[in-house]
């Protein structure tokens, strides 16, 4: 049996995935979490073979969850199922050790086959995205990405500095670096471009 944990913040999608996978004779859905932190706790409690996660979730994104799994060396394979058909997200997912990356509009049987392939030690990546992923590289580092995301949410440099326990000047430097790397005029343009390319 392939033992699965689902991490998906939309209740209807979570329920549908759970029901569909429950029909497969060799797949058992152990549980489901509505956000990244809950998924992290459930991972340690249930010890599944495979985690299926979305990218954007409250608190801890699917990519951050994959990075944490990789850092802690947990023996669980990660499959991302998302609406984000962006090469930047796929590159970051692969860097975080993700074994599968599928789009939510793929046929249901593709997901079950992908889970079997990943469980056997293979990879299951949407083929069109895989081609795109080797295009333009993400120029941002993790801290620039984190600060740019907060700036894009409307936080001031002072608020970001307080939240991340950094000095105001350090936050401004990171923002300037990100703006310079992306070749745009200000933080809002930088945020928009990075979002569009899947780098945030």
From TrEMBL:
This protein's name: Two-component system response regulator DesR
Record flagged with keyword Phosphoprotein: yes
Pfam families (alphabetical): GerE, Response_reg
Annotated positions of the 4-aspartylphosphate modification: 54
Residues in HTH luxR-type domain copies: 133-198
SUPFAM superfamilies assigned to the protein according to its UniProt record, in alphabetical order: C-terminal effector domain of the bipartite response regulators, CheY-like
SMART domains hit by this protein: HTH_LUXR (SM00421), REC (SM00448)
GO biological process, alphabetically ordered: phosphorelay signal transduction system; regulation of DNA-templated transcription
Molecular function terms from GO: DNA binding
Residue intervals of the Response regulatory domain: 3-119
Protein's UniProt keywords contain Glycoprotein: no
Record keywords: DNA-binding, Phosphoprotein
